[in-house]
Amino acid sequence: MVMAKRFHKIRYNEQSLRMEQVPYDLKDYVLLAVKRIGVLVLISFGSIYIFDTYFESPTDRAQRREIAFLEDRLGTMDEDMQDMAIILEDISDRDDAIYRSIFGVESYPSHLRNPGIGGIDRSRTLRGYDHSQAVISSEERLAELQRKLVAQSRSFEEVLDLAKNQTELLKSIPAIQPVRNEDMKRMASGYGYRIHPIYKVRKMHYGMDFSAPTGTEIFATGDGEVIMAKRTWNGFGRHVIIRHGFGYETLYAHMSKVLVRKGQKVKRGEVIGLVGSTGTSVAPHLHYEVHKDGRKVNPAQYYFNDLTPEQYEEMLKQSASSNQSFD
Ligand SMILES: [Zn+2]
To answer: Which of 72, 250, 299, 311 lies in the 20 to 30 Å Cα band around 53?
Structure first.
């Protein structure tokens, strides 16, 4: 039979003046047990702590990847929304500058275009997380986009109503490109500050230059009446001005040949002359201007009849990039 192991402690006996072995009593055993459990607990918690700090469980790793993925997506969506806001801005600029001004109505009221944030604070339920701020600002951006989109679509509804009753006006406004340019390769220089090809100084270029071979057909960009068709020995060279009514006039310069007379009525798309390099010009091209109420405006905004949105973007890019005009 195996005897249970007994613990002893050494005690000094004052009577016998000797050290002697005394078996553990209950109190000693309890104390021993408490000590051992204590050490065990300490080791357990210690290792959990160390493991937790320096090692990652598969669940942790999966969650960390998940969070990184969500952060990444949130960032991308944020950028997309910024892009959309820019496009929308562009649309509303065109709306105010063109569509609404064509019909002679005021710009869409800015308080309707940029309605304030109303109602309850939707972000309250989103607070208290590490990513609260990112999520809140994304949601706010999205809500703003929604409000602006609704406003824009209302504005377009008004414009559509106006358009239905104004076919005459729509035929008259300059709304196509003055030369055939399906592939957008003819754009040479746009409206804005450009280096003048002869004077070599930065000058405001009030029109748009289309580079094209001598003899290329030039079209009237809207219905109207020719009010000038003549040759000057400098500046515009052989040029034509058409009055379209509703405050619009267009100018076509540096022609090699003028094919209309002063006082002649023309239709949109009718050939009025041929491309050349007369006047102040360094190469065959058409210099084209649009005037509205006596002011020279950017022709780029008036090609809505023959450009898809993609072509329009391409044209803006090209006309903005060239640094020197053909004048
Ligand atoms: Zn020019």
So the answer is: 72
Q: Does 146 reside within a domain?
A: yes
Cβ neighbour number for residue 76 with a 10 Å cutoff: 10
Residue whose entry in the numeric block shows the structure tokens 């192991």: 5
Summarize pLDDT for 97-144 with one digit per residue, the tens: 777 777 767 777 777 777 665 545 656 777 888 888 888 888 888 888
Q: Determine the Cα–Cα distance for residues 18 and 47; give it in Å rounded to an integer.
A: 45
Q: If you measure from the C-alpha of residue 225 to the centroid of ligand 1, how many angstroms do you get, rounded to a whole number?
A: 23
213 alpha carbon to ligand 1 midpoint, in Å? 15
Token pair recorded at residue 262: 């002063």
Q: Which secondary-structure segment (H or E) carries 282?
A: none
CA neighbor of 252 nearest in space, from 205, 289, 208: 289
Q: Residues 31-84: pLDDT tens digits?
A: 999 999 999 999 999 988 888 888 878 888 899 899 999 999 989 998 999 888
Residue type at position 247: G
Structural domain for 264, as ranges: 187-321
Query: 165 C-alpha to center of ligand 1: Å?
Result: 35
- What is the Å distance from ligand 1's center to 327 Cα? 3
Cα-to-centroid distance, 280 and ligand 1 (Å): 9
Same domain, 45 and 89: no
Residues 158 and 87 in one domain: yes
* Among 76-85, 294-303, 311-320, the least confident range: 311-320
CA of 206 to the centre of ligand 1 (A): 7
CA of 204 to the centre of ligand 1 (A): 10
Query: Does 21 reside within a domain?
Result: yes
> What's the number of domains the chain is made of?
3
Structure tokens at 69: 């993925």
pLDDT of residue 217: 96
